[in-house]
Design a protein that fits this description.
The chain is an all-alpha fold. Helix content is 82%, strand content 0%.
């Protein structure tokens, strides 16, 4: 039980790797805005069903509820929105590289707001893991869009996304530090808070019309969205919150940032893309960093 937080963080990365594959295919069919809102709605329904069927009670203080609500807005609305915008401007490769700064931001915020100290081995493990991630992400070839990259605006968007992810984790950790909170309840609160903000904005912008008819016509898009919602917002975010409840925010964020590493087998076996030696070396370096975090 000493490594519950670390194991949950790695399981989170596994879930997010699977959801990334499902969402990337679904986005081509229904668009990113529709997908973003729908995945949160599906996840909210799944989480509510689990909470009701399991009879999980909501025992939260006002400050815990406030921190989780703000965490959802910061992480899922601001963080994810700017991440999608960064992908549009600078592409996934550069965006993912800059998102690798999220663990360092998380550790800094946790130190300033929570007084968490990683220690020398924790920082070494984090640095080695991020080095491996950077090697892998930089290896991924950017799809040509006919525009020069990177754009300064896209880089700024990516850093805002990284800060949003870091801030969301730290705010969730503040809620857990005050007292025990069920992971499914915490995730439900975060996702509902995000829906309350993002759904009306999408409707007013005309980006979320005739969605039901669209999904009824394209059942494959519906199945991909359901799969992604289960692995990502439902199971992945829940595991991420359990992770930050049992280990430091910096270590949790670093282990969750291994998604590019875990995507390598998917890229090779499912998408049939070639994986270079540089990417393999990056994976080995990242795994070594994960080992240091476990053995710190």
């Amino acid at each position: 039980m000493n490594y519950v937080g670390e194991v949950c963080a790695l399981l989170t990365a596994c879930c997010w790797s699977g959801s990334a594959l499902a969402f990337s295919a679904a986005a081509l069919r229904v668009g990113s805005v529709r997908l973003n809102v729908t995945r949160l709605l599906f996840a909210a329904v799944l989480l509510l069903a689990v909470v009701l069927l399991a009879g999980i009670e909501f025992h939260l203080s006002t400050s815990q509820l406030r921190n989780l609500v703000i965490s959802g807005i910061v992480g899922l609305v601001i963080g994810d929105t700017f991440l999608f915008k960064a992908y549009e401007s600078i592409g996934a490769r550069t965006g993912m590289l800059i998102m690798s700064a999220a663990p360092a931001m998380s550790a800094l915020l946790a130190y300033l707001l929570l007084g968490e100290v990683l220690g020398s081995m924790g920082f070494i493990g984090m640095a080695v893991t991020l080095l491996g991630i950077a090697l892998v992400v930089l290896e991924r070839r950017q799809t040509s869009s006919g525009h020069p990259e990177p754009y300064i605006r896209g880089i700024i968007y990516a850093f805002i996304a990284a800060a949003g992810q870091a801030g969301g984790l730290v705010l969730a950790k503040m809620a857990f530090n005050e007292g025990p909170v069920n992971g499914f309840v915490a995730t439900l609160i975060r996702i509902v808070s995000a829906i309350i903000i993002i759904f009306p904005i999408a409707r007013l912008a005309g980006e979320y019309n005739d969605v039901l008819a669209l999904y009824l016509r394209d059942r494959k898009a519906l199945s991909l969205t359901l799969l992604g919602a289960f692995l990502g917002p439902f199971l992945g975010i829940t595991l991420s919150l359990i992770s930050v409840a049992y280990t430091s925010v910096g270590i949790s964020a670093t282990l969750m940032a291994t998604v590019p590493i875990l995507m390598l087998p998917i890229v090779r076996c499912v998408l049939k893309e070639q994986v270079s030696w540089r990417a393999i070396i990056g994976a080995v370096v990242a795994v070594a960093g994960v080992a240091v975090l476990f053995l710190r």
